[in-house]
Amino acid sequence: MRAPALKELAMLWLLPPLLGAAGTLGFAPYGYYGLTLLAYAGLIALWWSSGVGRSALIGFLFGMGYFASGLYWVFISTHYYGGAPAAVGVFLVVALSLIMSLYFAFAGALSGVMRNLPRSVWSLLLVPGIILTTELLRARLGTGFPWLSPGYALTDAPVHDLIPVVGVYGVGSLLIAVAGALVLLVRGYLRERLLVLGLFVATPFAVWAMPAALSWTQAADSAIPVAVLQGNIPQGEKWQRERRSEILERYRKLTSEARGARLIVWPEVTLPALEQHVQPFIDDVDRRARARRQTVLLGVLATPDGELYNAVLAKGMDSGRYYKRHLVPYGEYFPVPDFLLPLLKGVNLRYSDFTHGPEAQTLIRVDGMAIGLSICFEDAFGYEIRKALPEAGLLVNMTNDAWFEDSTAPHQHLQIARMRAMEAGRPMLRAANTGISAIISADGRLLQASPQFEVDSLSMNVRPRSGATPYVRFGDAPLWLFALIAVGGGMGWALLRRRL
Fold first, then answer.
1. Same domain (yes/no): 308, 175
2. Are residues 266 and 386 in the same domain?
3. How many domains does the chain have?
4. For residue 94, what pLDDT band results from cuts at 50, 70 and 90?
5. Is the pLDDT of residue 348 over 60?
């Protein structure tokens, strides 16, 4: 085979997945967001001279590298703790990556359809609009799975003031636009290059002129003493019956040590049993908390109506319940027809059959202040968090990332929580079984964070906040509008030009 042919094969089959894999280095724990920018610039450069079919294939291969390297930890949870054979664990990683890569394939196909339009419009508006469309769809279709959306790579980038305005998908679109501008700077005509240089000069001033991130919300006059507990129970030991007493005693001790806290937060499903099986312990927690004028948020499995719920109970001076609404697919339930469920037993894949909590739930309050609660990966969905806003003055996420051991997943999940705090303009308390527990400021800074795989307790005074950021007011609606205009207008323009 001739050298040009080998080069062509490498450019088509090897470069896109390598770019995708490099793009994941922009996310936590690495934080090299410049690599994510360059990876998307490389993708756009490959789309630049490719037709519809080739662009779709390039997008698909980019996505396979992107998601297989960024979501490899699915193997850990399904094989080591889910009971699946190693081959099934690998299959699930590949299958999930394949499904997610279809969004990039769709984006590539759309970019190929619009490739005959002016390159400045294509690079700076249409491609960002196309990828924005696929990211919004990825967060909504089916159960939604917005992990590794490009905007998360910018959590620590100098765009903090934009996040409360346009959210993670807005800043992600900005990243794609800058990537397109880099391609235009290299491959465009002189006039297009001058346009890009002008935008590069003007953009920092535009970002600087934005209102400060914290200007949209107001801090309360008084702070609430809080404590976030991390019991560090290994996932492989959590449900061993002989460990139950030890686990309960550990949280009883951690709670008793948090004497100065008004609000104490435990991780997701802290109690390794159904609620009714540990009711005496829960009653004891309630009595002790009342005696100290405290409120404890604890996680437990509840069956109030015979169905199984992932629940949070408020005990002590304040009471209430929250049932998880957005369940983890293939973990807490399987989005497949009932007749396929026996096949799961055939491959020894454990599954739970949780019930979705009601959409409308009364917010738990502490001293009259509403709490915006989320369990596990519910905080990956900005539209879920918005349901408690602007009423809630404080966000709380209770999770158990022990399923993923010392992989990138706990770091990625913490990064997602920080983004939600910035979008909402609210501080967040994050309690994770084995870490990373954290107290996060309203502008996304880590005020305190626990080390992983250690018993720990975080405590400080936190000021709730009121008011509404533009993102809280409008959500993703402006972005949907832009996406509709970009994709619909671009498709119409491209088809019209072909007819003329």
1. no
2. yes
3. 2
4. very high
5. no
Residue 211 located in a structural domain: yes
Of 192, 315, 324, 423, the active-site residue reads 324
This model's pTM is above 0.85:
yes
Tell me the pLDDT tens digit for each residue of 284-337: 999 999 999 999 999 999 999 889 999 999 999 999 999 999 888 766 766 555
Same domain, 429 and 301: yes
Q: CATH no. for residue 278?
A: 3.60.110.10
* Residue from 135, 315, 376, 423 carrying the catalytic annotation: 376
Q: For this structure, is 387 an active site residue?
A: no
Q: Indicate whether 110 belongs to any domain.
A: yes
Q: How far apart are CA 17 and CA 63, in angstroms?
A: 7
Residue 64 lies in a domain: yes
Question: What's the rounded Cα separation, in Å, for the pair 150 and 68?
Answer: 15
Active site residue 192: no
- Which strands form 446-449's sheet, in the order they lie side by side? 365-366, 369-375, 392-399, 428-432, 438-440, 446-449
Q: How many helices (H) and strands (E) does the chain have?
A: 18, 14
Share of the chain above pLDDT 70, in %: 93
Helix (H/G/I), strand (E/B), else coil: 230: strand
Among 268, 378, 384, 423, the active-site one is 268
Q: What is the DSSP code (8-state) at residue 265? A: E
Active site residue 8: no
Q: How many CA atoms lie within 13 A of 271 on its CB side?
A: 22
Tokens in use for 150? 């490009």
Q: Which domain holds residue 425?
A: 219-467
